Amino acid sequence: MDVHLRDLRYFTAVAEELHFRKAAERLFVSQPVLSRQIARLEQDLKARLFIRDRRSVQLTSAGEALLHRARHLLEDWDAATKEVITLARKEQSVLVIGLQTGVGRGMLHTLTQALNAIKWRPELHQVAWNDATAGVEAGDCDAGFAWLGTTINPRCDYVVVAEEPIMLAVNSQHRLAGRRQASFAEISNEPLVALPESAKELRSFWLAEHARHGSPAPIACEAATADEALENVAAGTGSVFISAGNSILYAREGVHFLDVPDLPPARLAFLWRAGDTRDVIRVAASALQQRGDA
């Protein structure tokens, strides 16, 4: 009897959540599919793993034993996979770059030229906002472009490649749409389009919570991508803070941008794992920093 890693991931999610619906959402599968997989796993193992009724889900002693082993197996497999992928990238001279949003500013052209000069090439991966290190800390990416929040992850080294004023994107029919700038005091009560809660400190930064002295930011809705956020602005759902450079990248009909000069600037960083001293990282970081300083 062979149990697939997928079965162990499904089991572990249910065991940690103790809730089938929440586990299904975490795994991006339907609840009926998850229930069938767990039932099949119990059948294959000839053991009951969960005690469940309409109100609760609990692990059996067999389930607790399997959870301990399953976690180690999944961790070992994930570590082995990352090691193999890293070695394959090295052999192929590929540097995987994580991106939270569009970068623009000529950065990718500069990066590609610098890597090509040493016979490497970049491979771009879009990552979710809930990873403030653009896939670097998790090992999914070798390096990445990410906006810095109010704190810096000690597991990453970085260089700042752009520092830009923060602007507010408002609907073109907004009361401030004819203005070129506004103070934070004038806009502090504006309902905002927020990043998902999973984005944590980046969500906090782009809600300007550091300037609110403990007062909560008014939130109109959440958006998982910059495009989604700006579409909500165009629809009149709410406003959103954005860097000056991104106001060019994401400009669209129905949206007006105004400066907020009393907010601290946004900093875009190129980052990599702390202790990664490879020449390819040094070359990439140096080229991007020089472009940012130009």
Number of domains as seen in the coordinates:
3
Mean pLDDT: 89
Secondary structure category: alpha/beta
Sum up the overall morphology in one term: flat
**Number of helices in the DSSP assignment:** 10
Distance between the termini: 62 Å
What is the CATH architecture annotation of the largest domain? 3-Layer(aba) Sandwich
CATH class call of the largest domain: Alpha Beta
Task: List unreliable stretches of 5+ residues.
Answer: none
* Helix/strand order, N-terminal first: HHHEEHEHEEEEHEHEHEHEEH
Cα-atom radius of gyration: 23 Å
Would you tell me which CATH topology of the largest domain applies?
A: D-Maltodextrin-Binding Protein, domain 2
Largest sheet geometry: 5 strands, mixed
The portion of residues assigned to helices is 40-55%
Counted beta strands: 12
Beta-strand portion reads 15-25%
Spatial order of the strands forming the largest sheet: 4-3-5-12-6
